[in-house]
């Protein structure tokens, strides 16, 4: 699931966090841009809690840029546990239409999500992440995306 972790991750975290896409739900639609409420699950495989005080991320679909987003929410991911983090992503109408028109009708779409978790109390430290998966585009926008 997670392919990379930035070099500036604190040494107390022996393993990188996993970040997976849980849902994307439209919250504001206009002629030029859509705003999506995005829920991400952060899994901490380490034996120490991980305090996250924000993140930024981008989502590609079928190898093409789709959405960019961020969250200023803070959450403590328990040791050997997980927590959900909500954020907002923006999608241009042009990108959305391009993705819908080029979507294969009989199969799921491949997505790649990458970004940075900002770690609280770590003097500006951060942890990068990258996740790949597949989901049904129409279902994912309704909040029922497939998980890895």
From TrEMBL:
Keywords: Lipoprotein. The keyword Lipoprotein applies. One of its GO terms (biological process) is response to desiccation. This is Putative lipoprotein. InterPro entries: LEA_2, WHy-dom. SUPFAM superfamilies: LEA14-like. The keyword Lipoprotein applies. Residues 19-136 form the Water stress and hypersensitive response domain. Pfam families: LEA_2 (PF03168). The lineage of its organism: Bacteria, Pseudomonadati, Pseudomonadota, Alphaproteobacteria, Rhodospirillales. It comes from Paramagnetospirillum magnetotacticum MS-1. It comes from the Bacteria.
């Amino acid at each position: 699931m997670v392919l990379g972790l930035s070099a500036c991750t604190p040494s107390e975290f022996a393993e990188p966090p996993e970040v997976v896409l849980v849902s994307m739900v439209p919250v504001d639609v206009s002629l030029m841009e859509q705003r999506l409420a995005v829920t991400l699950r952060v899994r901490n495989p380490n034996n120490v809690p991980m305090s996250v005080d924000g993140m930024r991320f981008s989502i590609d679909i079928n190898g093409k840029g789709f959405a960019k987003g961020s969250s200023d929410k803070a959450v403590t991911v328990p040791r050997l546990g997980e927590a959900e983090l909500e954020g907002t992503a923006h999608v241009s109408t042009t990108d959305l239409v391009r993705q819908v028109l080029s979507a294969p009708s009989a199969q799921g779409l491949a997505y790649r999500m990458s970004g940075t978790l900002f770690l609280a109390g770590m003097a500006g430290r951060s942890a990068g992440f990258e996740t790949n998966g597949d989901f049904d585009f129409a279902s994912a926008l309704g909040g029922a995306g497939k998980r890895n």
